[in-house]
From TrEMBL:
InterPro entries: ConA-like_dom_sf (IPR013320), Laminin_G (IPR001791), Neurexin-related_CASP (IPR050372)
Domain Laminin G positions: 1-164
Gene: Cntnap2_0
SUPFAM superfamilies, A to Z: Concanavalin A-like lectins/glucanases (SSF49899)
PROSITE patterns attached to this UniProt entry: LAM_G_DOMAIN (PS50025)
Source organism of the structure: Oreocharis arfaki (tit berrypecker)
One protein family per Pfam: Laminin_G_2
Signal peptide start and end residues: none
Taxonomic lineage from the root: Eukaryota, Metazoa, Chordata, Craniata, Vertebrata
Protein name as it appears in the record: CNTP2 protein
Amino acid sequence: MKTLKDVISLKFKTSESEGVIFHGEGQQGDYITLELKKAKLVLNLNLGINQLGSIFGHTSVTTGSLLDDHHWHSIIIERHGRNINLTLDRHVQHFRTNGEFDYLDLDYEITFGGMPFSGKPSSNSRKNFKGCMESINYNGNNITDLAKRKKLEPSNVGNLSFSCVELHTVPVFFNATSYLEVPGRPSQDLFSVTFLFRTWNPNGLLLFSNFADDLGNVEIDINEGKVSVHINVTQVKKNRIDISS
């Protein structure tokens, strides 16, 4: 496929911060990859290199943040030669690709939700997308409908289901005065806790617990944007442990 113009659009939602949304590459050094990295949207594009390999055509653009919130997000990529409009949730970013070529010259297939292992360094460290997509449209082709009607050859690899499974996690919102108190587990040698959090505030207490029999306490807090763990243990010489990250 050798194109001067491309229009690619889709909607997605995920709770994962990493994953390839779609990918295509060609024999002339061309490639296009749209992926999530650290919950941001990254578009990597190269319209090819010349025979000497002296023209640096790689272009990378990052947009958005916190896109792993399991809400629907819409993407539109419009390309005319080297001019690109990248739209994420109605926010438009215009840029021009590096290099000197106008055509995107791809091989016979593009992939959505991941990329095949090609032996190239770019393909071995990227995660497949995990989540839901809908309304996938590639240059006028309704990919979602074609895939559902099994009109794509070659078709899907792995398990695809044409429904979107909702997460069963329940978030909890805290204001400045609220907290959640749960019963402790006495007579346990192990103290273990895991949770995800998101906040705009640089300071705050995340967790506090006293140990039984007045043996001390543990505290996890945010201090100037860093997470700190404080463990106070009585009846030992080194009675305080502080970890910051």
